[in-house]
Structure formats: structure tokens, C-alpha cells
Specification:
This protein has 176 residues and is an alpha+beta fold. It is 39% helix and 26% strand.
Length: 176
Amino acid sequence: MATYVAFLRAINLGATRKFPKAAIVAATEAAGFRDVETHINTGSVRLVTSMRSRARIEAALERAYLESQGFAVPTIVFSQAELCRVADDAAELGEGHEGRHYVSLLKEEPTPETTRLLEARSTADERVAVRGRAVHLLVGETYLDSMTTNATVEKALGVATNRNLTVINAVRRKWC
């Protein structure tokens, strides 16, 4: 049995995409996963499974969530070790940074070319750093004024979901 963390994209936004914690846990358990736990209302879910294929885990969760809620919930899964590495990278990359730090978690690992293109968006005020399936966005005090956002990342790399550094550190403390 292995521990994974699933990050759900675009839930609890507006009136039509509500997915309460209890419903997430119930749907995840109904799909056969064990020891399910959520982190507040962030769409971050820890689970245990004998499955070893990330793609199979994502597909099983996405089916379960669609059946439970009636809308698609793109789901991005990291092993426990991968999550710890994302948090370690965040700590290293954010050292000395005074603004906000967000991490776009990717369904697929980017190619070297797309990595280069995204990192080339870095400026004196904003930094983009790609580490595996995580894109670190180190921006000023206002994320919405940033040149690079999760929408930019998704346009370049496909399905991604974004968490701020506070959430990344909290799930690390709980689940690493």
C-alpha cells in the first residue's frame, strides 16, 4: 500500500461546483481508496491504495467524483515522496523572496522546450521555476497582477491546479 495526495482542480468555485469535504471523502472511499483525509477546503486529499499507476489513480478518482457530483473534477496525483520534493523545492526557491509563492501542480511533466519557454517569462519582479510536475510562481504581493498565472501555465502545459505556499507547507506537515 502506498500513500498519494490528490489535488482537485476547480472545486468550490461558484454555486455549481460545490464539493464539500465529506462528499470528497465519501466518493474517494467509494472508489476503493483507504485512509482518506482532506485538508480543509483546499481540494487536497490524502489516500492510500495498492494501485501503483498515477494515471489509473487519477482516472478512478475522476470517475468517482463525476459520479458523485455530476461535474468533471480534473485530479492531479502526487506520491507522498513527490509532494515532499515539491515542498522542498518551494522552500529552496522561495528563500529570500518577499512576495507571494504559488505552485501550479501539473498532470503531465513538461517537455524541456515548454519548461524553457515558461522559465523565460521570468522578470526582475517575477520568477517562474519548473521542477518536474510543479511550476513555482514567485510573484509580487498581488497574484492577479502577475504576468504568469495558473491560466498561463495551463495554456502552455495542459491541466494544472494551483496552491499557495501556505497550503503546500500545511499538506507537507500533515502528510510528508
